[in-house]
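hiii so um. not sure if this is the right channel but i have a protein structure encoded as tokens and i wanna go backwards to a sequence. like what aa goes where. can anyone help
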């Protein structure tokens, strides 16, 4: 069994990864939160100055999940500088130290935002597309990917990049959780006409399964993988699936898409409207063909599992 260093273990993706991977005897952890039981732990940030050798030495694989996450309307003075400090420069500091001690493989959890913010309907992003990040977060991840592959060429350390779209599952926060809250209230929602767009999602079960596959699959070396549930849905369909999973009837008001765009332009919220009514699809055929992988969880089962955890949390 490979010896792993896992970063970002206390976050949404990291906690699910650790829970699924199980055996802690061969897992070292790097982070700032109190860790679960493990053999070795280093309390440190992902930055340009920290020394990680104590937890890197003897490791076969780094699973690098930690990141400064995407924040809507970031209020810091220089968002790009903040993202770069962690997502780019901090990542490269960790990777260079990993290469120096002989780590064989470095798995980097990136983001579909490296490809861009949206797609034309039925023209999904592919793993081979040129980088076209539309915001500072995506740019920081894009720069990290490029520099990681340079380190791989110099050192021989294998680089694996995984770019997920929106990730959901038990314990999910942010917009997905907010939408579930609205659906659970049973109030009419204005999404009835948003049925011609398509969005790719990935359940945490499917994402973690791919990450675990990439730990030792020989064909994963020096590859970029896109990941999703393999079933793209419209905004209206997403709301229906949430309602079915929660067990609530749903009534969606037929507000036309042009109405959303008019309001978005009026209030300077065009970017928010674009995410609601636009498409963002990913093509996972390269991932499936290269690794012989397929998503183990259907989107319907993913929504049911998420809803079950959501309802349990509301009861508490």
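sure thing!! here u go:
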């Amino acid at each position: 069994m490979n010896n792993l260093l896992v970063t970002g273990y206390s976050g949404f993706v990291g906690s699910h990864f650790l829970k699924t991977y199980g055996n802690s005897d061969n897992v070292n952890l790097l982070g700032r939160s109190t860790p679960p039981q493990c053999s070795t732990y280093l309390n440190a940030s992902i930055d340009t100055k920290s020394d990680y050798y104590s937890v890197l030495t003897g490791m076969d694989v780094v699973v690098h999940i930690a990141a400064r996450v995407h924040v809507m309307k970031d209020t810091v003075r220089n968002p790009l500088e903040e993202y770069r400090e962690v997502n780019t420069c901090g990542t490269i500091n960790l990777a260079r130290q990993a290469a120096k001690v002989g780590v064989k493989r470095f798995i980097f959890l990136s983001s579909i935002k490296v490809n861009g913010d949206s797609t034309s309907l039925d023209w999904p992003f592919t793993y081979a597309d040129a980088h076209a990040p539309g915001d500072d977060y995506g740019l920081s991840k894009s720069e990290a990917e490029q520099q990681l592959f340079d380190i791989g060429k110099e050192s021989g350390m294998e680089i694996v990049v995984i770019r997920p779209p929106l990730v959901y599952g038990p314990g999910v926060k942010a917009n997905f959780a907010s939408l579930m809250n609205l659906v659970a209230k049973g109030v009419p929602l204005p999404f009835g006409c948003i049925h011609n767009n398509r969005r790719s999602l990935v359940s945490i079960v499917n994402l973690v399964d791919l990450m675990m596959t990439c730990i030792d699959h020989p064909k994963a070396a020096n590859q970029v993988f896109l990941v999703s549930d393999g079933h793209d849905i419209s905004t209206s369909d997403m709301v229906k699936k949430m309602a079915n999973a929660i067990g609530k009837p749903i009534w969606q008001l037929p507000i036309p898409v042009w109405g959303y765009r008019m309001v978005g332009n009026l209030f300077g919220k065009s970017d928010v409207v674009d995410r609601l009514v636009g498409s963002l699809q990913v093509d996972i055929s390269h991932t499936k063909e290269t690794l012989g992988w397929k998503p183990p969880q259907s989107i319907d089962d993913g929504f049911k599992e998420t809803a079950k955890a959501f309802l349990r949390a509301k009861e508490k």
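oh and The beta strands are 4-7, 27-31, 40-43, 61-64, 105-109, 158-163, 166-168, 201-203, 223-226.
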